[in-house]
Structure prediction request, 599 residues.
Amino acid sequence: MNQQQRYRISEKMLVDGAFRRLRNFPSIRVCCEVPVLGRSVDLAYVRDGVLVTVEFKVRDWRRALLQVRAHLLAADYCYICMPERRISNDMELAMERTGIGLLFYTDEGKWPFVPVIEAKRSEETWETARSWALEYIGEKQGRASWRRKKR
Amino acid sequence: MAKKKAIAGSHLVRYGIAGDQKFLVGDLLNTYDELVINARMVAHMAGGLALFMAQRAHNKPYFIDPETHIFQHGIDYLLSTSEEREPKIKRSVKHLIEWYGDPIAGIVKKGQRILPENFNDAHKRRDFCQSVIDFQLKVINERVKDSENVEYYEFLKEKGVVNSSSFTPSLVVAPYFCMDGNTFDSWIDINIKCAEDSKKIANGLGVPMATEIVITQNVLFDSTQVQRLIDKYTKLKPAVFLIWVDAFGEHEVSDGLLNAFVEMLKQLKASGSHVVNLYGSYFSVMLLHRKILDGVTHGLEYGEERPLVPVGGGIPTAKFYLPALHLRLRGDDAIYAVQALGGFKSVADFHEFVCDCPQCKRTVSNSPRKDFGGYLRTKRVNTRDIPYPETKENSVRHYMFAKQREYADKDIDNALKQLKYARKQLRRYVGAENTDHCEKWASIISGL
Prediction:
């Protein structure tokens, strides 16, 4: 994907695209905008009892890493998802250091993500926040994002 | 009228909205000395306040902030906002306008904003000051006399539960308007004249008078304006100066601004009047212990700083007031901080290293890791995470107990050591933005 193509993509497009396709998997519970300790996770899903959070970013991976830090308190695995791009040494080292994984978004196939850097299991999970997130996903799973404004 | 003490003590709490009431009574009643009540709330529910004062607050001293500045920011700030209804003046503001009369009533009716020249006429200005003072002295008293509970109040008087001064504020506040760097010259003389007129009225009634000085940070930046402010205001010699610097977050502002603030307070204090910061954090409490301030007000969790507009309140958020940093931390940072302090190891460790206030003893009593959620749990309402009622209750109660300790603990040298230690211990976990104020505060306070 070239830079011009990437800039035309918005985070919302990526979130909505991933959400629509994950919703088709019967074994997955998925939800957008999951509250975690006063912050919002773009998308979170639960498969086989494992809670995964995904923060979508078109460009600024450093900012994404800061945002995802809070997700580590609620999730088992945390990812940043971006359109396909070059991975710099800095980026790879930061991901390695924080244990946060990297996904590329793809339009092809049923699964919307291409794993690029595997996330490590969060060592910071605060069980209370995790159970709140699971409860929220259980209640709201599969519903379209509230971010769509009423007209 | 019997002469009362201008302020009952150094710990003042802002009673901003009706929902605050439950956190100002019971075992929290003795955590503070005096209430500061917003005029809009008084205008809206004077009867309810009378009952609250007599029955639940057990004659807690109070005074009313007349909030005259709200009329200078434009009509939009005075309107109720509802998608279903046409915007109209909020009921509480309408009541206030009825009490205050002209020039405010006439100008707001035309949909205009108040200007300094509206107060040039000495006669009308004096009448306006009289109305604003009458409101503060009479609004609750009149409701007591008119209410269907009048017999009940008589009964309370006979029993000695209330007395004739129970419903009278400890002081009256002169009408005031905000001065920013640009409008300073236009407003300062009007503010001074309002204070002079009010002082004569208050003296005649035998009530202490306070002057509220409301400025923006721009004024603090300008030493010439600050000096003019001090020269003019100190000549007034009111019983109390009430200070409000717009959105003055003592945690965030620069050393230079904090120093300018302290310098201004010192000069006001030197004039012999009491000085009270209407919105202050632990930094102001330390100024209190250094005898530069005589009182500091805060709200219930919120209200350690306040912008002039919007005139109303904000959306509540779930945060935990960490006593070590004297700061409300959002959920994720609070967890990292408690973990770094070793508070999750055991209940005893939580109480030793994080907080052992009565509320923390109640909330964190079994498993600190799990129980701490009692301070942070929220529910999603539309796009916002709102604390559950029990979350708010736990947090506010903890905050009130923590503040009580701050005011009571006068060992500043130890406090300064603790501040430096907390910064060192927590900086890498919760960031510079949540810890650097400790060093800044310690440096300024140790130089006083």
About this structure: The domain at 11-298 of chain B is CATH 3.20.20 (TIM Barrel). Chain B touches chain A through 18 residues (CB under 8 Å).
